[in-house]
Specification:
Shape: elongated
Number of helices: 6
Oligomer: single chain
Strand content: 5-15%
Number of strands: 4
Structural class: mainly alpha
Strand order of the largest sheet: 3-2-1-4
Radius of gyration: 19 Å
Helix content: 40-55%
Length: 176
Amino acid sequence: VCFVGTPLVDDALDGYLNTMNELRQAEGLPNPDTQWIRRMRTFLDELVERQEQDLFRYRIPELMRELEPRHGLDFGDEKGWTPRKETHALRIGIHLSMRGRVEAVRRLNPLGIAVYGPPAWRKIGLSGLDYRGEADWATDLPKAICGAEVNLNVSKLMFETGLGPRVLETLSCGGF
C-alpha cells in the first residue's frame, strides 16, 4: 500500500487550529470576552465532531448555518453567507482532511504502508512508519505508484467528488 501526499499537519490554512490559537491569544488580553471565547470553542468542537460523523460528504457550510444560532454566533452578513465565512469553512475542512489522512495511514501502518510526502509525516509520531521522503512528481511519483499493489487516495474533504489529482495520476501510471 502506498500513500503520496501531505499529512496537512501544521498546514497554515488549518482553520480549526488557527482559530483555537487566536482564542488562546484573546484570553491573554486585558478584559477578554470569555463567554464568547467559550461559545466559539464549543461551536468549533461540535462542528468538527458533527462533520467527522460523515467524512464522505462535505457538510461544514450547512452545519455552520445550523449550529451558529444555537451557540449565539453569526459569521455572516444579512444574506447569511459571505466570502469570509466560506473561507473559514474551507479552512476547517483542511483540518478535518488532515485528521482523515493521518488516521488512514495510522490504521494501515500495521499492514505496511509506504508514505511519500513532506517531512511533516514525521510529526505524527507513528512508530515504524515507512516514510520515504518527498516524491518528485515527474520521476519518483510514477515509480512509487507503479511499485505499489494499492495506492491510497484520501482527498481533501472539500473535493465533493473525491476525485483529486492523485486518482488521475494513479490511473495514468497504470496503478490501482
